[in-house]
Inverse folding.
């Protein structure tokens, strides 16, 4: 049985001591619903509150005009932990108070319309691509950041310059929290063929459980409500839609119809988007979906998944492969640029920069492209112009960065129009 500690005040550290009836399982778990946690490598939760007076009433009242699908968008995707480190102080990250005015000025100077934080939720590593989330309600911490409510200063500052804030979501969980939370598979599938992701070494939520769906949907609404996020991008949607994603024959379980579509995940995504647009119709949800799954950004009542926008991953990879060719050879690969017109109007596409995922194994890295040697700036400018010339219902996400070193710092060239 749980115990109540009425004397625990603000700032107190705590964990849950789990004593399971199954196999003598005993473990100390941090609170997956905590709003403040210790800075890694420490892992305790901290008693805190979200007492904050917002100053963005005017922004919130007119947000629906800036977030409409017929408005142009230029999204700056960034990782808070590696943006403008301070070399004189051990290459540390900026605090939220330090970052807010600098970022707002930077976005205004380069004429970006939106900024996306990846990831915005608490994660144990400062690596840019961290997606294993230990804390679903806590803001990702930066060293030397005093309190979680400091994050509120950033959108408040940025919005005076008209920059909506997007948060990147990943529906995966670390193997330590909340995975195997009470000694049983409470949040995830018990069968590893359904509940374990072999590529990311993480657990997969059991989207068929009402309690899990309620937890995840309420968590998304929490960020839109309490942190005034203007939109959410859901990462790795393809891994949710397909039961055989990153699996070999015999390593996955077909659905009840014998197919490879994850029916529970499809139902969850539709419920998620329906809930977001019901309660926050002036926000947007964006799907990072890399396959040809139909109607990702179409309403649920016509059979779609209900997202407002979808990343055009095919355009990103085709453009990168084209730009990596020597100019003299590009005339033989024009199809890489024209193929998109066959499907360009099937979805509400976001055009991600070809360099956003340059460090992944899915596409060749900029540094390995012969055409990039000594010509990175002109080619980046050409990619930007190609992206921005599209119809305004298509948007451009521009984040040129590549991992450097174990610290997760990023380097690169940032181009604005």
């Amino acid at each position: 049985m749980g115990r109540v500690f009425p004397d625990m005040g603000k700032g107190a550290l705590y964990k849950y001591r789990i004593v399971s009836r199954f196999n003598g399982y005993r473990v100390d778990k941090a609170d997956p619903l905590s709003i403040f946690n210790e800075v890694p490598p420490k892992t305790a939760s901290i008693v805190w509150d979200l007492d904050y007076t917002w100053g963005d009433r005017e922004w919130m009242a007119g947000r629906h005009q800036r977030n409409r699908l017929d408005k142009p968008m230029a999204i700056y995707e960034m990782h808070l932990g590696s943006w403008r480190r301070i070399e004189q102080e051990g290459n540390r990250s900026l605090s939220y108070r330090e970052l807010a005015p600098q970022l707002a000025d930077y976005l205004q100077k380069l004429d970006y319309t939106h900024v996306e934080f990846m990831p915005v939720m608490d994660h144990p590593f400062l690596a840019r691509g961290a997606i294993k989330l230990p804390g679903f309600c806590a803001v990702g911490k930066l060293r030397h950041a005093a309190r979680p409510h400091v994050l509120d200063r950033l959108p408040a500052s940025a919005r005076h310059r008209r920059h909506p804030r997007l948060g990147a979501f990943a529906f995966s969980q670390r193997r330590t929290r909340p995975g195997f939370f009470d000694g049983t598979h409470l949040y995830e599938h018990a069968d590893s063929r359904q509940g374990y992701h072999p590529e990311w070494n993480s657990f997969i939520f059991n989207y068929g459980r009402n309690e899990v769906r309620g937890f995840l949907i309420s968590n998304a609404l929490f960020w839109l409500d309490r942190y005034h996020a203007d939109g959410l991008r859901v990462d790795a949607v393809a891994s949710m839609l397909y039961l055989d994603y990153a699996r070999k024959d015999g390593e996955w379980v077909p659905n009840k119809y014998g197919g490879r579509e994850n029916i529970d995940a499809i139902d969850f995504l539709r419920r998620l988007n329906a809930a977001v647009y019901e309660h926050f119709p002036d926000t947007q949800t964006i799907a990072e979906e890399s396959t040809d799954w139909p109607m990702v950004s179409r309403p649920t009542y016509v059979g779609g998944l209900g997202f407002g926008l979808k990343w055009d991953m095919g355009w990103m990879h085709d453009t990168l492969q084209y730009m990596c060719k020597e100019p003299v050879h590009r005339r033989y690969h024009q199809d890489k640029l024209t193929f998109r017109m066959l499907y360009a109007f099937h979805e509400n596409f976001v055009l991600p920069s070809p360099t956003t995922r340059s460090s992944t194994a899915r596409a060749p890295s900029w540094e390995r492209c012969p055409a990039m040697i000594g010509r990175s700036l002109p080619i980046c400018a050409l990619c930007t112009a190609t992206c921005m010339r599209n119809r305004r219902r298509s948007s451009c996400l521009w984040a040129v960065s590549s991992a450097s070193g174990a610290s997760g710092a990023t380097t690169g060239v940032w181009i604005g129009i």
